[in-house]
Each structure stands twice: as C-alpha cells, then as structure tokens.
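chain below, 555 aa
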Amino acid sequence: MAATMVVALGGCGGGAGIGPGGRDSAGDDRTVKASDINPQPRDKLKDGGTLRWGINEFPAQWNRNHVDGNLAVAASVSNALLPSPFLSDEKAEISVNRDYVLDAKVSDQRPKQVVTYTLNPKAHWSDGRPITWADYQAQWQALNGRDSDYRIVSPTGYQDIEKVARGKDDFEVIVTFVRPFADWKSLFGPLLPAATNRTPEAFNTSWLNKIPVTAGPFKFGGFDQTAKTITLVRDDAWWGERAKLDKIIFRASEQDSLIGAFSNGELDIIDVGPSAPDYARAKATAGAQVRQAAGPDFRHFTFNGSSELLRDRNVRQAIQLGINRQAIAQSDLQGLSWPIALLNNHFFMNTQEGYQDNAGALGVYNPQRARQLLDAAGWKLNGTVRQKNGKTLDLRFVVPSGVQLSKSEGELAQSMLAQIGVKLTIKAVPSDDFFTNYVIPGNFDITPFAYIGTPFPVSSSYGIYVNSADGKTWNANFGRTGSAAIDKAMSRAAQSLDPVQARAATNAADKLIWEEVNVLPLYQRPQMVATKATLANVGARGFYDLRYENIGFMR
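prediction:
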C-alpha cells in the first residue's frame, strides 16, 4: 500500500486500494465485486511459467516515494519486489504482513502516540543485509518534509513523527508521534533500504533507471530499453512461500497497442481501463475474461492554478461550470456494464461511508454562470474567443498519446468550452513523458488522468491538496493551489482517532476544495483487467493487496 494515491494514465491501474462495490448513488442495482482475481489455493496452481504483463508506461524513476515515481505502473512492478509492513484484504481490513513484520501495535497513547513494530528477523535485502529499525528511521528522515532537497511525494504521517528509535534489539522499532496520526498503518510501505534514503542525492538518484536492491518473492532480472520490458525472476533467497511463477515480464506499450497484443495472445494480462472498445475486444478474445471491481479510483481533470491563464480562481470556477461532467461520464462509461454516476467528493467514493455531495452549485453544468464569471474577470469575447490585455483564453489540454479515452474527453471539453468563448487546444505527448515532463512540472493548463486510491482516504489524498509552504514546492499537488483552511481541515481529519469526526473534517476540506478548483472529479473509475482465464490470484483486485508469490496458472 502506498501512503499516497498513485497516478495512472487513462487505461492504467495497479496502484493500491479499492472501495466496496454495491448500489450507486443513482440507485443502480448492478452488483460490482469488491475484488475479482480468480482466487485459487496454491496447490491448484502449476509450478513455474512466465507471466507476460502489459503496462502502458516505462517508468524511469523506481523510487515510489519520489514525486516522479508515484505511478500505478511502478507500483504494479515493485510490489513484487519491496517490503510493506501491512496488507489489505478485499474489505480494506488491514493486517500485518508477517513476511516482514510479526507484530505492530499502538503501545502508548499518552502523553504521546507510540507504535511498536516487531520485525521478522528472517527478512533481508537482496544484498544480504537484514531489514532493521535503521531502515525505518532513514525512511522517516527522508520523508518527513524537513529537507526540501528530498523530492518526495508527500510528508503525510511522517511529518507527525517525533522520532524512530531502536527497541530491545535491531528488530524492534519504536515510533513516537508528536501528534496523533490515525492512519499510522499507511506508513513505511514500500520500505526502501537505509542506504538509498540517507541523503537527498541517494534518494533522488539511486532508483533512477535502476532497481538496486529488492526484498520480495521476486528479484530484479533486468530492463530492456529497446523492447521496453522489465523482467522479474523468482528469488530463491526469499524466506516466505516460494513464488509459483518462474518469471514475470512486464512489457510497456501505448494503451491502444496493448489490447491488440492481448487479443493476439502475446500478453496474459492488461488493464483495460474505462474503454468500451477495448472492453468489447478483450471480452471477445478466446480463452480470456475481463475481471471487474469497484474502488476509490477516480477519473478527473486537474486544473493548473499556477498557469498564467488559470491563476484567477474565478476563471477556474467558470471553466469548471462550462464542463458538462455528465456528458463526459456518459461517453467514457457507456458499454462498460458500469453505473454512470457523477462523483461529487474528492475523498470518498459514492459507495463509501462518509460520502456526501459537497459540489453544490459548482458541480452543476452552468454555461450561463460561466460566461458571467469570465465577463466579470475581464475576459471579453472577441469574435468566438475571449481576450484580455491582448491575450487569448487558449488553454492547453495535455493528454498521453495512444490513450483514446483522454483524447475523446478533450474533444468533448473543447466543444463545451467553445460555447463560453474558451479555446481548448489538445496537445498529445508521449505516454512515458506525460507525468514526468508535463503533469509534475506543471507544463499544462488542464489534464485528465486517474487517481488510484488506498484504504486510507484522508492520508492518501492529503498530498494532492496540501498547500505549498514556499509557493514553489508542490510535490504531489499538481493543481498547484491550496489554502491554510484546507490544510487545517485535512489535518483535523488525519489526527482524529474518532472516525465520525474524521469524516466530518474530511467533508469540510472537500467543500473548500470544490471552491478552489484544483481537481475536478468525474466518476468512480472501474477497475477492468483482461486476463487469460487460467490465470489465478490476479486481476481487478479492489482493496486486496496482491500476493505475488501466489500468482500463477491453474493446473
């Protein structure tokens, strides 16, 4: 599990966490599974074999705690390789991952919250070093946000820790918090070795185009930059249950090529994402099935509040009011056997406890009000497009090439915004560069992608909406807007050990985010994964954390 939501292109999934299925807010009775992975006992699986797994990006940064590495694709690969102290089941119930941690509990609450971890002494890194308290301490020091040279995703939770100390031996970790942190089980996963966390230089570069060390059922086999493959092989030094597969080969290709390769029998598993043509093609593939689950993954548009044209909040609100979300959701989801319901909350899915519609008037398609706001902001119509001080209101809508869904969304939004005098220019960029060179550095005005959630709705979203301390460092807040009031409400939610109070504070933050116009939620994103029918213990996993050693082909 990642402590922060990971990002995904249009059709890509694989980050942590999914919400329970059930009735949607529009009263749709279709049953959606919480998890759909073809669960099979290990003795029903063949020993050996190679799994060919299609992905739609080839990441350069493999440190998932680094802002450039916070990708769903990177999680799909490295979850087979790296330690995580906890695992989630399909109901989002969290338990210790006994391959790494034998026990973890709140050992004190007064005067301060203290968590004690008892580590599995058998656990070790692939270089032979044991996994000890020192790895936990170094991770806290790297991620607590005190040194801005560490290019972290988010300091959430780590900034609330006072110290990480050695207990009775190297395999006991004592974590003392400055202030209460309810989601403490979201921390330290994935855990990286102390050596790659010790300095900003090590943190930022040790995992760049390399995977230097592992500690899982698989180990790193190699990259092939030409074929765009990442090979993992079974690690015979693994102390847990032996991996069923000999090898996993991840093959990166643009989304529209993956479905062809799957249909031709060149791949065993791909994420279909919310694409009706790909869904239909995958379903029609002989010997295949599409596995489907619900969860806190959502499709959205991010608005760049630091871009010259969108700095004015009233302009952002006008653009939001000029976008017909219902029409976009209808277009994206038709033909997918998926409830079409708008998402009106940034933290909770329609089916989750705590969900309430906080969008109000700002969530309703209202082109007339949009025109009024733009007029009041000084953007006057000159022919068909608005201008102000000699500048044209021409927004860059940046999309990853090969993702038809994103292109279609851009075309719909282009037509809608033209009606309020706003020009939208669609700019397709290479998939591998989309996040690293465009979204993260803020080289866009509006951009569509998906957030892949975790079992921790507040702490996983904190980094997306938290304000910049210096006005320059935004980490995972790609919308580059925020406020002290939003931060205060999110902090109240994160610190509350009472779930009712936490949900109330979360919804207070949500109302403020709707006004700020940072992320415009569209809909809860279906997890749709096409697999060979004989493939077991993998697919649309919902909240369930995959146990990679149990993935295999049925006998």
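The first strand starts at residue 6 and ends at 8. The two ends are 30 Å apart (CA to CA).
thats it, cya
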